[in-house]
Design brief:
This protein is an alpha+beta fold. The model has no long low-confidence stretch (mean pLDDT about 95).
């Protein structure tokens, strides 16, 4: 099973271009302190790479199961 990635926004999107803001929204981040768990796929890794200066990333064992 692929590990998941826990992404937490730690810096503001203010003073960044619209493309960067859209990438943050695409990841599901809504502001400083918001956190999401995403799959470890090439598309998500590419999005995270674009905003690496605004987020912290941790590797998780697996995605949490939905109820």
């Amino acid at each position: 099973m692929n590990p998941a990635l826990r992404v937490r926004q730690v810096r503001s999107e203010i003073h960044h271009d619209d493309h960067t803001r859209r990438v943050l929204r695409g990841l599901g981040l809504r502001g400083i302190g918001s956190e999401v768990v995403v799959q470890n796929t090439p598309s998500f890794r590419g999005m995270i790479k674009r905003v690496m200066h605004l987020v912290n990333v941790q590797e998780e064992a697996a995605l949490p199961k939905k109820k």
